Amino acid sequence: MRKLMRFAAVQVLVVLCCVGVALAAEGAPKTKVTESYGKGANVFSLATGSPGELGLLRELGEAFGAKHNARLDWVKAGSGESLALLQGKQVDMIMVHAPAAEKKAVADGWAAGRVLIGSNEFFIVGPATDPAHIGHAKTAAEAYQKIAAAQAKFFSRGDDSGTHKKELSIWKMANVQPSGAWYIVTKSFMTATLKRANDEGGYFMTDSSTWAAEKKDMPKLKILFKGDKYLVNTYHALAAPAGATPGAKTAAAFIDFVAGEAGQKIIREYGKKTIGEALYDDAKYAKQYDD
Q1: From the CA atom positions of the chain, what is the Rg in Å?
Q2: pLDDT (tens digit, 0 to 9) for every residue of the chain, 291 residues total?
Q3: DSSP 224-290
Q4: Which domains does the chain have, with CATH numbers?
């Protein structure tokens, strides 16, 4: 009888352990961390695209980590995916450029602390020969109309990123439903798609930060259209509501840091030492384009 009781007790412990592991796994992030910055005990996760790809996030994360005993885990994702990750409580915060979706997230209650942190802008780049003659366009929509009319090769990220959302809105403004062999969907991030446009001789709408960092390796491309105010790209930081995720409190502190003078100085100076020009504008500049 005692052996049976001991056996039953062991079985109960095994079941409880399995339940505990399952619950821990359920609450753990299901996303793959791309890189980590800082070595502190206060860990938080952040999903974003180009600020991580271009190294700005590293500088911000390491500076914050040193002051706040923190570690930033970057999850590489475009704006649409980043918003989904935040909604699913898979990350503690995001940096995105999708204003309408951001506002809805705050209104729906699963995002908080939407703060303007800076901006860049979009350029339409393409072959120097400019087969669609977009260099003469007066608006981004007109440039897209010319590309469609010429059926000139155009590359789309097609990944629900902020860039993709902006691209689709411009096609809509141009009254064009892009399709056919000339319209190529990559399902890739900014730099990879830019490289394909260079290698295959097509048009692409890239952000100015990526272009500044990568143009030396894109000899077949040049800026053919820029200057439309609609192409200005404002970035906001949003966090999970307080207590919603394990790192929400640290994420909120990071947003305060990025929006403060120390973080803003990093943003407006990032790139000057390495490539001779800033990759992003700060929030003060971006505010004139914020909606």
Answers
A1: 22
A2: 444 344 344 343 333 334 333 333 333 345 799 999 999 999 999 999 999 999 999 999 999 999 999 999 999 999 999 999 999 999 999 999 999 999 999 999 999 999 999 999 999 999 999 999 999 999 999 999 999 999 999 999 999 998 999 999 999 999 999 999 999 999 999 999 999 999 999 999 999 999 999 999 999 999 999 999 999 999 999 999 999 999 999 999 999 999 999 999 999 999 999 999 999 999 999 999 997
A3: EE---GGGEEEEEEEEPPTTSSTTHHHHHHHHHHHHSHHHHHHHHHTTHHHHSS-SSEEHHHHGGG-
A4: 27-119+235-289 (3.40.190.10), 122-231 (3.40.190.10)
Hey, what are 58's tokens?
Answer: 């590293």
CA atoms within 13 A on the CB side of 29: 21
Identify residue 30 by its one-letter amino acid code.
K
Q: From CA 28, how far away is CA 25, in angstroms rounded?
A: 5
